[in-house]
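User: Fold this, then the next.

Assistant: Folding the first:
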Amino acid sequence: MVSKAVSIKGSLPVLSHVLLKTEDGRIKLAATDLETGVVTWVGAKVEEEGGITVPARLLLELVVNLPPGKIEISTEKQVLTLSAPNAESRLNGLAAEEFPPLPEVGGRTVFSLDPRVFSGAVSQVGFAAASEESRPILTGILVKGSGKNLSLVGVDGFRLAERKLTLPEDLAEDLSIVIPARTLVEVARLSAHQEEPIRAVLLPEENQILFELKGARITSRLLEGQFPDYEKIIPPSFTTRAKVVTDEFLKAVRLASIFARDSASIVRLHLDSTKPLTLSANTAEVGENKTEVEAAVEGESLEIAFNSKYLTDVLSNLQSEEVVFEASGPLNPGVIKPSPSSDYLHLIMPVRTAS
């Protein structure tokens, strides 16, 4: 659980370590990369108080390969001894005092949310955030809200995803913060199977947020900067509209993507009210593919091209049987929505093609 927060390229050796420390008759485990921190606790019979940090990668590999049964942990100076049935290991570590302090709960709760609802929302917007650090603000998810309305928004310059949620209680105040996408993805992953609500707390420093889960806490720095005015990007109308079965659409995109790998992953959509929706892709060295999918098409005929990965990402994360595709010309963005729900919108910029 905590190893996900370990720094891979940290400047401080202790950031590649996990902290093990006795606390209130339990063992506290913590890891941080100074941007995100994860804390959890494991029940134990504590015979003597103490703490140490040990390399996370080695500890994880060791623990997952131990035989079933109780384990005994002891420390002497900066060495951790871990004893299990028929196995004893020693790991060189660092003093617990070298581990950076992590924030405690002490701020104001900004919202509480059902973990299944939260997890589903994050899965629909998290992949739309940028993975490259050239524009750090785009690696985050905008979380904004007022009253009972909360929106999660991800943008990477080529696509946009917005998921709207209804909270059980009004927000104490209007909210607009940007949280690293990888933090939200990790919170969603760890909370997906719990039943207690997730509590989000803004810490007194105002530049950090803490998510309190059952048996764990995840803290994260908020991203600073101007998030794009994404609402201006969303087209107010469309000239072509198609309703199609989600699974059939996804299968057709995946099939076409096989033939698009060596041609910048470009897949073409052909829409005509008198014909099925057609997806096609071709590469001179590989060949070509054309797949027809039954769809209810309205409006003007249209041929528009997209990166197949972007289509696959959104269609894989929709939980509706049907989706609606809307566009207004081959050079304007395409919009995908679940049908009949109106709480999610995904926009993809088209690819300009030679023909």
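Now the next one, as you asked:
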Amino acid sequence: MLNNNGFASDNHSGIHPDILKAIESVNIGYSIAYGDDEYSKRAINKFKEHFGKNINVYFVYNGTAANILGLKTVTTSFNSIICAETAHLNVHECCGPEKFIGCKLVTIPTINGKLTIDLIKPHIIGFGDPHMAQPKVISITQPTELGTVYTPEEIKKISDYAHKNKMLIHMDGARLCNAAVKLNTSLKDITGDIGVDILSFGGTKNGMMFGEAVVFFDKKLSNNFPYFRKQGMQLASKMRFISAQFEAFLSNNLWFKNAKHSNKMTQILYREVKDIPNVRITQKVEANAVFATLPKKYISPLQKRYFFHVFDDQISEVRWMCSFDTTKSDIMNFADCIREIVK
């Protein structure tokens, strides 16, 4: 029998009670549509508290839209976007970047999901050559798709290099809150303060019902975003139901508390499974994901009890994730199930 408390994704979790209350609180009477409401203005002010006053913020429904529309706003069809081979932008957006941005994605193999200047340098070529794609953006994910976390120093080096070459830094921050908890830092300290130009900021994976934000740390970069958002079918008419969530999410340290809990549960999961025979942890456990390999014959029986994803079928690598509402008993039961099956 499949256990509903699976470890497939933090997208599978529920909605934090405070977020539900926030949605209910704005479900009264009428409100101006398309983001001109008081709730959206209050949510934007919350973003400015966390990311700095000199920013522009736009709300969209999902992370794919945040990534694609943010990047489309700062590129043209002859540009290239540098990203890790494992990037969500490359692997899990169904060629959306290619279709809607029209740019070339230059994907770089990595060991741990992180880009470095040494990995990036060979691809920063062709400036001014009409026969070649023109490098414009380096896109990094924080935490990476492999659950690893960039240090502020690592990001600063990449952003300095990008800006030196008149390029921009985009950050896919669908789980940025988990990285901030791991680093014990503010959201601004690991984004705008160290050179990030465009940020896709996630809430859905950390207790919200739906909604992501695109943050521009240089307002001039966002001049065309309102039009691309409308063309991209992401301009919510009843935007207050996204805005109210973000206001609650960024108030009373809720974003931090939720991410801290999911990170803590992930460390417990890691400790419980790391010494099980035939289970090998493949990446550092730094946010809310555990990557492991185990013999292929055990994966299907486990998935019949707990739903989770196979990340790399070639090496039988799986991904187990924790959420803001994962409990210790969920983890202990899952670990016991692994011990029972993986002998």
